[in-house]
Amino acid sequence: KYDAQSREYNCVFSSSTVNLKDLPAEGVVNPIRTSTVFGKSVILLPKNIDATVQVHTAFGSTVLPDGTQAPNFGDTLVRTKPGSTGNPKVRMEVNTVFGQTVLVTE
Question: Can you give the pTM of this predicted structure?
Answer without folding.
Answer: 0.87
